[in-house]
Backbone:
């Protein structure tokens, strides 16, 4: 049902939601969309066909879908993002980037869960690789960097300081828990067999 009040269109949808504002080519363009949500009536403000203020899902021309709270046209706070390549993100969002606590699931099966800053993994987190390896520790600008532990799928592990996503200073243990390599400034040094 569509009616006009004070030069604005009022459109009521079968689910009971309404839109008051300007339509363009039959689509909601500028105005307010009111609908019932789990916590009562929600209002989403639209400007030039995009979500301006309120909660909703925005689909971009490249096919990516962003779901969450919008403030003055910008997605902010806790969001869910569905990328066209199959990746997903759920977590904090600020200034157009992943920010704060979040979980990024890659289409290849890898998953990062932890802190983000300015769109990059930064701070404490966990990265689970699709091959079964798992890193727990510090990240810096999307790289494994700082103190951490890499658990290998065969049961072994690397413990120590990571740099450029590789062990820099520390020890590597085999699947039986025996120390078999020391790592000093990125160089892996075999232990004396008598020490193993």
Residues:
């Amino acid at each position: 049902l569509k009616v006009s009040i004070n030069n604005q269109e009022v459109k009521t949808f079968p689910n009971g939601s309404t839109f008051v504002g300007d339509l363009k080519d039959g689509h909601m363009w500028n105005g307010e969309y009111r609908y019932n949500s789990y916590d009562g009536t929600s209002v989403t403000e639209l400007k030039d066909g995009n979500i301006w203020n309120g909660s909703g899902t925005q689909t971009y021309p490249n096919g990516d879908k962003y779901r969450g709270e919008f403030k003055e046209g910008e997605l902010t706070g806790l969001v869910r993002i569905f990328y066209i390549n199959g990746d997903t993100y759920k977590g904090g969002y600020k200034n157009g980037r992943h920010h704060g606590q979040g979980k990024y699931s890659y289409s290849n099966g890898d998953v990062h869960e932890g802190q983000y800053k300015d769109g990059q993994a930064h701070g404490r987190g966990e990265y689970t690789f699709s091959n079964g390896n798992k890193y727990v520790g510090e990240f810096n600008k999307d790289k494994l960097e700082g103190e951490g532990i890499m658990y290998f799928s065969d049961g072994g592990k690397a413990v120590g300081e990571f740099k450029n996503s590789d062990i820099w200073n520390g020890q590597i243990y085999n699947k039986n828990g025996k120390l078999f390599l020391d790592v000093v400034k990125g160089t892996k040094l075999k232990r004396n067999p008598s020490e193993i």
About this structure: The two ends are 79 Å apart (CA to CA). The chain has no helices and 18 strands. The CA atoms of residues 103 and 113 lie 4 Å apart.
